Amino acid sequence: MSTRTFLVQGLVAGLLAGIAAFVVAYTVGEPQVDRAIALEEAAGATAADHEHSDDPAAGHSHDDEDAVVTRATQSTLGLATGTLAIGVVLGGLTGLLAAVGLGRLGGLRPAASTALVALLGAVSFSVVPFLKYPATPPAVGSGETIDNRTALYFGFLAVSVLAVLAAVAVARAAVRLWSGVPGVVAGAATYAVIVVVAALAFPKVDELGDFPAGLLWDFRVASLLTLLALWAVIGAALTVLVDRTWRQHDAVRARRELAASL
């Protein structure tokens, strides 16, 4: 199997994953976003009422009327574009990494190796960074700190990805010295230690204010479900595609070997 085959199959898996993520985000996540936006608008209207009562000459805001992209477009076409783009990018990257990992992750067959790569990608790229810096809905966080919050998130994400690469290297070395199970434990421990130390070292971000805890929980659960749906489909679809292609190659090779032996 060539790297190109892994890449193409990864792109296909990513496209399917993007569709799945859109369905989950639209059905589970968008209602929470609408609730958060309504809360933000209500707070803004209250503040505007106070300003008007203090200054009768104050003008009326037309931000919603002047919006370039409507909320309906954001929650449908915009959301679909985002999830499909992210799905294809992550799927293609996972396919390439699966090609690199083939034959380098112990004695795992291509399907198992691919599934492991997808699992490591999901944990290091999405789940662990989400646990440290979970998604926040509209009306949460100051616009003045968004650059700093974004930098912290991507900084921790980079540490998590580097940690999983270090964990794989440690696991491979440990397997050569001992055996499979101790090697896996050593790799997992390496990743856990690095990310825990990083999580303690990176500053906390707490700008929730008096935002309703129930709505915040629902929003974060919906965001996590979207991420899990994305990675689950990438992993499952890519594993199935790789396994099918590998079996076809095996069948062709077996026929050639049989023909050569006659």
From TrEMBL:
<dbReference type="Pfam" id="PF09490">
    <property type="entry name" value="CbtA"/>
</dbReference>
<feature type="transmembrane region" description="Helical">
    <location>
        <begin position="151"/>
        <end position="171"/>
    </location>
</feature>
<keyword id="KW-0472">Membrane</keyword>
<feature type="region of interest" description="Disordered">
    <location>
        <begin position="44"/>
        <end position="64"/>
    </location>
</feature>
<keyword id="KW-1133">Transmembrane helix</keyword>
<keyword id="KW-0812">Transmembrane</keyword>
<dbReference type="InterPro" id="IPR012666">
    <property type="entry name" value="CbtA_put"/>
</dbReference>
<feature type="transmembrane region" description="Helical">
    <location>
        <begin position="183"/>
        <end position="202"/>
    </location>
</feature>
<feature type="transmembrane region" description="Helical">
    <location>
        <begin position="77"/>
        <end position="99"/>
    </location>
</feature>
<feature type="transmembrane region" description="Helical">
    <location>
        <begin position="222"/>
        <end position="242"/>
    </location>
</feature>
<feature type="transmembrane region" description="Helical">
    <location>
        <begin position="111"/>
        <end position="131"/>
    </location>
</feature>
<feature type="compositionally biased region" description="Basic and acidic residues">
    <location>
        <begin position="48"/>
        <end position="63"/>
    </location>
</feature>
<protein>
    <submittedName>
        <fullName>CbtA family protein</fullName>
    </submittedName>
</protein>
